[in-house]
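Objective 1.3, modelling of assemblies. Example input:
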Amino acid sequence: MLKTRVIPCLQLIGESLVKTVKFKNPAYIGDPINTVRIFNELEVDELCFLDIRASEEGREPPFEILQQISNECFMPLSYGGGVKDFETAKKIFSIGFEKIVINTQAFHQLDFITQLSTHFGAQAVVASIDAKKNFFGKYSVFINDGTQKIDLDVVEWAKKLEQAGAGEILITSMDREGTWSGFDIELTKKISQAVGVPVIANGGAGSVGDIEEVVKKGEASAVCLGSMVVFQQKGMGVLVSFPDKKKLREVLK
Amino acid sequence: MNDVITIIDYGMGNLGSIQNMFKRIKVESEITGDIEKIKRSTKILLPGVGAFDAAMERIAEKGLKEVLDKKALEEKIPVMGICLGMQLLTRSSEEGKLPGLGWLQADTLKFNLPNPSLKIPHMGWNYVHGKNPGLLIENLPADPQFYFVHSYHVQCHNPNDVLTTTQYGIEFHSIIQHQNIYGAQFHPEKSHKFGMKIFENFARL
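Predicted structure (tokens):
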């Protein structure tokens, strides 16, 4: 049967690899190409790259770096950040990425998702939602790298994105991102139960146990790992790594 | 000396990563949609991502059907279809109305899954289980697994043509071979060491 995908999710700001905590304070990790070489050796399932500032800064995606990544990596690749139009998306696909992650632009132009999905297939379109729990326990949706709150219900928004043609939903908990404190199970479960497409949980992974929990209780189809694959431990130095595969396989049975 | 692999470009899917993988295993390859070049080819890889009818239309528009038929059926050079390219080898697909290349006794069916919680497309890493021996699947690393993305699957009518099967709610045919015609449902170019072995084996045929 299908293995649960465990995906290193790597943050870029242009040509640098960084890691944030709760969407803030990007720490410099290193050169993305050296890092992907390590993940190539580790034979990870899939890699996701997000240029976290491209939308906010109105920049194009870092095409040259993406090309170098694609030349090095023989695994599925997705990219998100600053993809606003068809031509940009086409260029990323032609570089050798098979999925594009759309967040901010889906809010401005929902039919962009439909356009991409019709042309490249739903499997190539990942709709990303950044959500934060508010004071009253409700989830708010944010765009532009968590800087702009939009007036949408997170579950309704996920359903709309699916209807528009998204093949997967990437749900990121802004409260958990970079904290090592475990995924937001409630948020993930809400989305998983509302849509038929695979849901990728992101934000908060700190241990293999966290991964198990979000798959079993949060009903996630796949999980993203951020801090866990670039730092030794919480508060410690950079170490590019991947959880023990045997251990993962055991808990994800 | 290995043959140069001719990767057929008919405008469906990205071919760069396929060529990158051949480069990595030091096998020469050429991406082309040129009829004259295809005429001279000695080994063909038929890629493809997208919809069945759109692909068959592109092949017809570019006038490639005749030359491909000749290479596969008369000259009998090794031809491998991957992902949608494998489905195109079959006679028909439930995804579309146009006939396929029909080079083997097989059809492409929609996933009819008994378990409604299984999502379509079948997307991600999955295992293959050997059914018949074949040069294409020789010496695969232990626990062979590959990256799949598809909503339809190939059903061979001759059990001898099935090299491996894969489980996803049902058991489907993931690597097939009939004489010089080979097919793989997954993306070897995205399946690191396992995919490299398949490409190496194909290059050695």
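The longest helix of chain B spans residues 192-204.
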